[in-house]
Amino acid sequence: MKYDERLKELREKISGKEGLEVKHRELQAQRQELDSRAQGLRDIL
Amino acid sequence: MDRLEHMSLAAVFYAAIGKKENRLDKEKMKVYAAKGKYDSAVRELHFVEEDIRYMETQLAEIAEGEREYEDLLEKKMAEIKASHLTEAAAILRLEEQIAVQQSRKKEISEAIAAGSCALHTTEQILASLDEAKSWGTWDLLGGGLIADLQKHSHLDEAQKQVEQLQSELRQFKTELADVTIRSKIQVGIDDFLRFADYFFDGLFADWAVMDQIKESQASVENVKSQIEEVLSRLCDMERAAEKELTALEKEKSTLVISTAL
């Protein structure tokens, strides 16, 4: 049908959204942890 | 701090133990271990910030794609209704399920690739530590300056590999985040972000270099077996996802064939 090819492309792109959001949250948590750890270690040094 | 900034691990050892003494001052050890951990945390922080920026660009592109998708889907549904083909709507639903399953399989494969990379690096670290241990033994038997230099050169190599492993473990943890949430499985990876800490603690924990190498080997062996365990579960998940994908594609083909008839 008329829109099938473009729909397929977009579907593939969109289907990764949930995974990316989870990874984004995970990275923000990692940033917070690393930031506070670096701060603590800097104080020791 | 500034003086420590550009020191390699071998230089740190030499500064602390000299060429003859094999013992470190406890206070100095704490500072040297903290220096290793600090460098690792700062480097990782930089990578995490880069990854966050990349994710945000990707999410913005997806949001744009979603708007276009909704728009096209509405047009397509209107065409389906006009054609009175009920099977077309079922095929569309199946295509959506297939796309979700493909994305899930891709995420599992990415996690496997990240884990395999980290696993390979643990093997390289163990090889470097083994070399350091061998030269260390030779050094104890009177190997002299060359044995001493070789031992520390392999320790330096191990340190570089640990820095690489720390990055790879962090990436592995990120890749695992969505895989584990979607599958509702628990994997013991909380320590992955702190691996370098354990390594540096091990390396500076005891007074004799040979014991420090043993401690470090133990922490690398430990993380290696954790990676292997997670990888084994991921491979099971990948096989299950593949099976489900095949079933969905078969269902779609059957529907397409019967519709054509």
Structure description:
The complex is a heterodimer of chains A (45) and B (261). Chain A is mainly α and 45 residues long. Chain A has helices spanning 4-14, 17-44. The model of chain A has no long low-confidence stretch (mean pLDDT 87). Chain B has 261 residues and is mostly helical. Helix content of chain B is 89%, strand content 0%. Chain B is built from six helices and no strands. Chain B has helices at 2-5, 9-17, 26-83, 86-183, 195-205, 209-260. In chain B, helix 3 (26-83) packs antiparallel against helix 5. Chain B is elongated and about 90 Å long. The N and C termini of chain B lie far apart (77 Å). Chain A binds chain B through residues 1-4, 6-8, 10-28, 30-31, 33-35, 37-38, 41-42, 44-45, and chain B through 1, 4, 30-31, 34-35, 37-38, 41-42, 44-45, 48-49, 51-52, 55-56, 58-59, 61-62, 65-66, 68-69, 72-73, 75-76, 79, 88, 95-96, 99-100, 102-104, 106-107, 170, 173-175, 177-178, 181-182, 193.
Itemize the secondary structure elements and their pairings.
The complex is a heterodimer of chains A (45) and B (261).
Chain A: H1 4-14, H2 17-44
Chain B: H1 2-5, H2 9-17, H3 26-83, H4 86-183, H5 195-205, H6 209-260
Helix pairs in contact in B: 3-4, 3-5, 4-6, 5-6
